[in-house]
């Protein structure tokens, strides 16, 4: 199935509103999920919608959620998301950070009682569009083992950093070598996984995806990736009144209760430190220095963070977004139960 960007957003909005979501909640969620697919992050796109719809039906994600700022200073804020749709809650949180950063130069906002918010880079980019630097992190269920350990105790804990340079720079990465979804896909297809992706329940590297799912994902970059995942767990957990480690539940799909993870974001106005023109000019010089540097044989282009996703986005805006048969069939079934004909949309 090939969908246009606008059609995918229409489908998402329609199904969410069928289950009581407000227009604002549905629009924010549709925008982020479709952007995930547009940029090549299929694990954070339409694939996520069935999980969200099931949680809405059982009441573990709230519609028309009461989103409240419960702590505030001129440069900080803490938001209780009311267990609402994470994409909507965190869009509001980043907008608050942007507003404060424009007044104070730097601002930080934390979120708890929210849900999975899709691609972290989307929210960093909200700041970039306003000429600001955006930094975003979040926690997930415990899937990653500590360096030297066996048990899954850390989340994959995405980190996004966006800078309003020319061209724009947008880092968006998780702390595991590979996403859990890639192991699930390999297991379904009966294929092995690279040895550095995961360990089995005994702590040994494995090429068997099923054993990797029973064990733990490995942190990228060895002890350095583990250390980064660790500090992000604290920033987007205890600092913002949210859970950490094994207490983080429901980021894939809140089933037996509400999601307990947290989010943390920072917005920075470059003008608080240097003239905007100087920042852009010096950043561009560095970017050009990197892109024009000597390449190893066989490499056609050196790209900066965010550039591969931007190229994918431009191509898919022209050619459409590919959606797997498995995801489409599941979505059709849910839509049918809700009285919605996807083919007519």
General description of the model:
By secondary structure, the chain is of the alpha+beta class. The chain folds into two domains: 2-58 and 309-344, Malate/L-lactate/L-sulpholactate dehydrogenase, four-helix barrel (Hypothetical Oxidoreductase Yiak, Chain: A, domain 1); 69-176 and 219-272, Malate/L-lactate/L-sulpholactate dehydrogenase, NADPH binding domain (Ribosomal Protein S8, Chain: A, domain 1, 2-Layer Sandwich). It is built from eleven helices and eleven strands. The two termini are 13 Å apart. The mean pLDDT is 96.
How would you spell out the order of helices and strands? Answer: EHHHEEHEHEEEHEHEHEHHEH
What is the number of strand segments?
11
Number of helices: 11
- Could you say what the CATH topology of the largest domain is called? Ribosomal Protein S8, Chain: A, domain 1
Could you tell me how far the N terminus lies from the C terminus, measured between alpha carbons in angstroms? 13 Å
Q: What number of structural domains do the residues give?
A: 2
Q: Radius of gyration, rounded?
A: 20 Å
Largest sheet: 7 strands, mixed
Under CATH at level 1, the class of the largest domain stands as: Alpha Beta
In terms of quaternary structure, what is this? single chain
Would you tell me the structural class of the helices and strands?
Answer: alpha+beta
Q: Bin the helical content.
A: 40-55%
What strand order characterises the main sheet? 2-3-4-10-5-6-7
Low confidence ranges: none
Tell me the name of the CATH homologous superfamily of the largest domain: Malate/L-lactate/L-sulpholactate dehydrogenase, NADPH binding domain
